[in-house]
Amino acid sequence: MGEMCILLDENDRAIGAVSKKTCHQMANINKGMVHRAFSVFLFNSKNELLLQQRAQEKITFPECFTNTCCSHPLATESELDEVDQMGVKRAAQRKLEHELGIKAEQVPLDKFEYLTRIHYVAPSDGVWGEHEIDYILFIKADVDLDVNPNEVMSSKYVSMDQLKEIIATADQTGTKLTPWFSLIDERFLYKWWANLDSLDSLKDHATIHRMI
Predict the structure, then answer these.
(1) pLDDT tens, residue by residue, 35-81
(2) Which phi and psi angles does 203 have, rounded to 5°?
(3) Contact 91/71 with Cβ under 8 angstroms?
(4) What is the pLDDT of residue 126?
(5) pLDDT at 116
(6) What is the mean pLDDT of the chain?
(7) Which residues, listed in sequence order, are joined to residue 212 by a DSSP beta bridge?
């Protein structure tokens, strides 16, 4: 919780550094504090998406299913680098190994595809929450997993139809989903997924999609 995240203004300009604990407290979020984040969607050669279920120990949205990896670039020189979004990509590579045991050589930086950004806010339990400008990264790779149980409760690959079924039956089955994953699923995911090998025309680097 002592890691330093990147404090932003609402136009994604870095304006400082703030501890992970501080930027996830609703008392600060309610005052407008926003930080930079990323969401990785990793697909295998069968075009199946790797989902994870967040560990019980997570302070925000424990036990919720979500995309492959969701975290924050840190306020360090290498992860503040905005040229070709390299800072965010380095953070994604770092966290894929930390959470899922995926080695860096299986997810090279040049294979990450940056699609767009979303801006959202989501209270978790009244004390903790999220207020992020979230960089959406896709990568297609066959990887070896060594899941960190302190971060991830479970993981599984799903087809597009299987994910749609999970979403459609979530209320009946008691399946909990993270709010950012739900927003991306509703607005963007399936058109991107249908064009995994031709994403360039769907990239929107100029827009911060306000979903608050």
Answers:
(1) 999 999 999 999 999 999 999 999 999 999 999 999 999 999 999 99
(2) -75, 140
(3) yes
(4) 85
(5) 98
(6) 97
(7) none
Tokens of 205: 């680097």
23 annotated active-site: no
Tokens of 15: 């304006």
Q: Quick one: CA dihedral 51, 55, 56, 61, positive or negative?
A: negative
How do residues 2-34 score in pLDDT, each as one tens digit?
A: 799 999 999 999 999 999 999 999 999 999 999
Say which of 64, 70, 79, 99 is annotated catalytic. 70
Strand partners, 107: none
Return the H-helix or E-strand segment holding 140: strand 129-140
Paired tokens of 191: 């058109």
Question: Cα separation of 190 and 171, whole Å?
Answer: 21
- The catalytically annotated residue of 79, 99, 113, 132 is 132
**Residue 132 among the catalytic residues:** yes
3-state helix, strand, coil in the chain (%, to 5): 30, 35, 35
Sequence-distant (≥ 6) Cβ neighbours of residue 209 within 8 angstroms: 116, 117, 118, 119, 187
